[in-house]
Amino acid sequence: MAGSVQRLPDRKGRPWRARFRGPDGREHSRTFPRKVEAAQWLRAQLTAIDAAGWVDPRAGRVTVAAVAEQWTAGLHGLKPKTVAGYGELLRSRVLPTFGSVEVRSVTSAAVRQWVAGMAGEGLSASRIRHALGVLSLVLTQAVSDGLVVRNVAAVVKSPPVRAGEPRFLDATQLTALADAAEQVSPGSGLVVDVLGWVGLRFGEAVALRASRVDVAAGRITVAEAATELDGRLVFGTPKSHRSRVVAVPRFLADRLADRLAEVNGDGLVFTAPRGGPLHGSNWRRRVWAPAVAAAGADPKLRPHDLRHSAASLMIATGGSIKAVQRQLGHASASMTLDRYGHLYPDDLDALAVALDATRATVSPNAAPRGHRGPETLTP
Q1: pLDDT-derived band of residue 182, with 50, 70 and 90 as boundaries?
Q2: Which phi and psi angles does 254 have, rounded to 5°?
Q3: Into how many domains does the chain fold?
Q4: CATH number of the domain to which 136 belongs
Q5: pTM metric for this prediction
Q6: Alpha helices for the chain (secondary structure H)
Q7: Which end of the chain has fewer CB atoms surrounding its CB within 10 Å, N or C?
Q8: Does pLDDT of 378 surpass 80?
Q9: What is the pLDDT of residues 102-136, one digit of tens each?
């Protein structure tokens, strides 16, 4: 693909024009004060075209805010909570700094300075990582739209995130917590037990309907979950977007049967004291916090830690990784192993014992391979 540099005799100040026809079929040109500058610019454009990295020089003038608006409009199939989280990070973190900046002018140095500034404000490493992730997704959209050649945020690292240690309750502690919750608000003890023995997420328990509980078989079909957004509940599919069937211990199935007798039709199994679905924010404040205090549990204990507790109880009773994965609804057994593998008994000692037993089956007179026996020395 060729271009040309020519002098414009009637043009003062910038008499040299470089022009070429781009992959888009349109002619692109620019004027310069000197011929050498025009030739350098033309050479850079043609090189970019040959390397399949050319974009329309005018395209990058679109602002980050404009690209973010298009990107947000295309967020289909994601959980409402995820979309809301993206929107909040855009409004509070990304757009105040980069919104009015043209995408072609965003540099990796500017992004690194932005990340350092958030760290200086004391923001958590997790929130910084999420904010950087949102900016990177927006710039990926810009690359996809042909506005810029590369995503400059992709090479910027965020502070390392240190995962908090999950808290686990044993059977005695879980029972005490359920009893305390029942004392605070009748019916809440059953909520705690379902979370702590079955491993449902809180939103899955909130959305559980009577028709999805099979008391005779000891099974619950998890097909819906509730998410709280700005004080209202949004019902949708579970986190994995797939339904699953989980096992319910008999003692809990019998108690669920009593509860189902009080439910009208296919209503929600768990409801607020005055009716209607449970709201997590209200339940944590009015029931969870007082119950944790009354049971003498760790004040930092979260409702989600009951799910961790369920995993530990399943593993302690001999549940396989695959069974625990299916019960919790993880996407893969490797995810379950990454989170809870340390709870499985250390079988290295058993491995050593098994090797000892195998060696003992070998004849004590058998010479190891490669050993020639004692040598006879001759005088």
Answers
A1: very high
A2: -65, -40
A3: 3
A4: 1.10.150.130
A5: 0.66
A6: 35-50, 64-73, 80-89, 95-98, 108-120, 125-144, 171-184, 188-193, 202-206, 250-260, 280-283, 289-295, 305-316, 321-328, 333-340, 348-360
A7: C
A8: no
A9: 998 899 999 999 999 999 898 889 999 999 999 99
